[in-house]
């Protein structure tokens, strides 16, 4: 596919144009179009490579210094309803956001929801660098905390239960029966109470997407933390020596 | 994708197809003026060549190489303009670290003439874009983003006219709908105006008032969508009257060849897009014959 796309192409067409009033400048008589691949047949201009070098050096130094260690790889498809990478990420967002939110508003964070598609990379076993954080979260998305009423929380859980992919969660447990119905929802240490509101940390992308994206069609209020998701990940890498995550029972469907 | 396949012949056969009964009798470039348009889109902060281990783009791209290519083409034809169709920012840590400074500085070193603004160029907010403007020696063109109530007010132009070797080239920019794509926090009070309406006004201005010989649109609308009412380059080509070339972006479309569409006046419009990440450089050469009555009214399009 790639080869056909970067090849030169040559097709000729003749068409009628009228440029009668422009004859003193000459008429447009011919147009040639082609696409030139920027490949290894070209050698880069040295002065430009030299210009880029200090920028590159700084990026490489920062991104490639080891911040932590992952004894085992964290994956996004090792569980049915929750995954080691998703759990790791949702847990770290809870851990990094709860104190910030408490300081900012005096309120307690209840749980975390992220979208599966927003986690752009897995974590391979071995040394972990800031470059991994850029791979996991390349976008400039911030952590927002939304306030949801009980009905909105129930609808959110139903949305998660009906989703094809395992959206990462933390701070809550969802148990579905063998028919896919909701058996129980536990938030923190208590059963879900539909008469109260909850505070949910998530990506501002999902909040801004509203009903279009599906997670948060109805929010009571939104608190922007101003904390970049990627920075939360990097801060977490710096604090921890060893990074682990596993598939657990936070979101399960009971067997027959 | 309605391609006019019956119009196409490969150059290998060196054959010409007459349309409307008008033959083409001038293939020689004697006494001609030649304008070369070079273009990129969706480079997304890709500064370095992809590593040899890359699954898809191994050993492709890289600004230093693109610079060498552009330089060789400029040496061959000094009457060359270089454009970008937006999404200059976001995609590698260079953007996260330097906010687009390096991208703009390098584009200035490559002597880009103009770029339009893509949705990701708002990723560090209006202020983040403004902060990089001092690093750009090229114009930012957008006819359908109204920045009046933002910090960017006065730092973009709807269009620019280049006079090269007696040929007037009018270039305008169009951006994609921001709602649902760019957070309000980032684009703030930027107003998105209907690109179809703005294009018709702008191209008429360029053709009828400014007497441009060529009209070029730098578009970040996207190549083609199933919904014909969703603004796209193919729709734009068919709804306009004077635009000769649409340089597209946003959809990261790797066209096998530039698309040739028919406009409201029955004339041909070229729509081109060269994928993404600086993997390709687009090149369109326009030949003008200085001899009166030369070659009747035929324009040969070789794509």
TrEMBL record, chain A:
Query: Which parts of the sequence belong to the 5'-Nucleotidase C-terminal domain?
Result: 75-213
The UniProt GO MF terms for this protein read: hydrolase activity
Q: Which SUPFAM superfamilies match?
A: 5'-nucleotidase (syn. UDP-sugar hydrolase), C-terminal domain
Q: Which GO biological process categories is it annotated with?
A: nucleotide catabolic process
Q: Which Gene3D superfamilies match?
A: 5'-Nucleotidase, C-terminal domain
What protein am I looking at?
5'-Nucleotidase C-terminal domain-containing protein
Please name the source species: Flagellimonas allohymeniacidonis
Q: Mind giving the lineage of the organism this protein is from? A: Bacteria, Pseudomonadati, Bacteroidota, Flavobacteriia, Flavobacteriales
From TrEMBL, chain B:
Q: Return the similarity comment.
A: Belongs to the 5'-nucleotidase family.
- Say which species the protein is native to: Flagellimonas allohymeniacidonis
Query: What is the recorded name of this protein?
Result: Bifunctional metallophosphatase/5'-nucleotidase
Show the SUPFAM superfamilies listed in the entry: Metallo-dependent phosphatases (SSF56300)
Q: Which UniProt keywords apply?
A: Hydrolase, Nucleotide-binding
Q: Name one GO cellular component term.
A: outer membrane-bounded periplasmic space
Q: Cross-referenced InterPro entries, in alphabetical order?
A: 5'-Nucleotdase_CS, 5_nucleotidase/apyrase, Calcineurin-like_PHP, Metallo-depent_PP-like
Q: Domain Calcineurin-like phosphoesterase, which positions?
A: 36-253
- PANTHER family linked: 5'-NUCLEOTIDASE, 5'-NUCLEOTIDASE-RELATED
Citing just one GO molecular function, the answer is: UDP-sugar diphosphatase activity
Identify the domain of life. Bacteria
Q: Which CDD domains does the record cross-reference, listed alphabetically?
A: MPP_UshA_N_like
One BP term from GO: nucleotide catabolic process
- What Gene3D superfamilies does UniProt report for this protein, alphabetically? 3.60.21.10
Quote the PROSITE patterns the UniProt record gives: 5_NUCLEOTIDASE_1
């Amino acid at each position: 596919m790639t080869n056909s796309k970067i090849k030169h192409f040559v097709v000729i067409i003749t068409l009628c144009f009228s440029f009668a009033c422009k004859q003193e400048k000459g008429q447009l008589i011919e147009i040639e179009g082609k696409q030139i691949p920027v490949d290894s047949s070209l050698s880069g201009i040295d002065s430009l490579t030299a210009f880029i070098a200090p920028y590159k050096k700084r990026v490489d130094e920062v991104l490639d210094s080891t911040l932590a260690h992952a004894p085992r790889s964290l994956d996004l498809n090792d569980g049915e309803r929750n995954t080691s990478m998703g759990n790791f990420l949702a847990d770290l967002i809870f851990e990094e956001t709860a104190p910030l939110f408490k300081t900012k508003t005096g309120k307690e964070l209840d749980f975390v929801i992220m979208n599966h598609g927003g986690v752009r990379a897995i974590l391979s076993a071995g040394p972990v660098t800031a470059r991994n954080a850029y791979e996991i979260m390349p976008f400039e998305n911030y952590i927002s905390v939304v306030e949801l009423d009980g009905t909105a929380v129930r609808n959110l859980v139903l949305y998660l239960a009906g989703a094809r992919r395992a959206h990462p969660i933390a701070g809550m447990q969802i148990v579905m029966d063998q028919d896919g119905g909701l058996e129980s929802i536990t938030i923190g240490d208590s059963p879900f109470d539909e008469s109260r509101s909850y505070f949910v940390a998530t990506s501002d992308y999902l909040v801004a997407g509203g009903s279009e994206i599906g997670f948060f069609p109805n929010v009571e209020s939104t608190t922007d933390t101003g904390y970049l998701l990627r920075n939360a990940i990097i801060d977490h890498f710096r604090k921890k020596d060893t990074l682990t995550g596993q598939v657990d029972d936070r979101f399960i469907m009971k067997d027959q | 994708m309605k391609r006019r396949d019956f119009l196409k012949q490969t150059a290998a056969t060196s054959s010409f197809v007459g349309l409307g009964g008008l033959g083409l009798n001038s293939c020689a470039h004697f006494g001609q003026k030649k304008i070369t348009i070079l273009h990129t889109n969706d480079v997304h902060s890709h500064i370095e060549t992809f590593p040899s281990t890359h699954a898809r783009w191994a050993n492709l791209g890289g600004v230093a190489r693109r610079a060498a290519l552009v330089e060789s083409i400029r040496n061959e034809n000094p009457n060359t303009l270089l454009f970008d169709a937006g999404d200059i920012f976001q995609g590698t840590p260079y953007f996260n670290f330097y906010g687009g400074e390096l991208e703009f500085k390098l584009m200035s070193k490559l002597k880009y003439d103009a770029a339009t603004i893509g949705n990701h160029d708002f990723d560090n907010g209006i202020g983040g874009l403004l902060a990089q403007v001092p690093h750009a020696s090229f114009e930012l063109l957008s006819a359908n983003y109204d920045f009046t109530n933002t910090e960017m007010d006065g730092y973009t132009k709807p269009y620019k006219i280049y006079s090269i070797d007696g040929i007037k080239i009018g270039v305008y920019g169009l951006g994609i709908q921001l709602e649902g794509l760019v957070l309000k926090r980032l684009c703030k009070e930027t107003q998105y105006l209907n690109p179809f309406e703005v294009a018709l006004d702008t191209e008429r201005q360029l053709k009828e008032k400014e007497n441009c010989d060529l009209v070029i649109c730098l578009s970040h609308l996207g190549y083609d969508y199933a919904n014909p009412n969703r603004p796209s380059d193919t729709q734009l080509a068919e709804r306009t009257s004077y635009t000769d070339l649409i340089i597209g972006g946003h959809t990261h479309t790797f066209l096998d060849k530039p698309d040739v569409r028919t406009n409201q006046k029955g004339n041909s419009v070229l729509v081109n897009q060269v994928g993404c990440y600086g993997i390709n450089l687009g090149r369109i050469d326009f030949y003008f014959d200085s001899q009166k009555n030369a070659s009747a009214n035929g324009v040969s399009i070789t794509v």
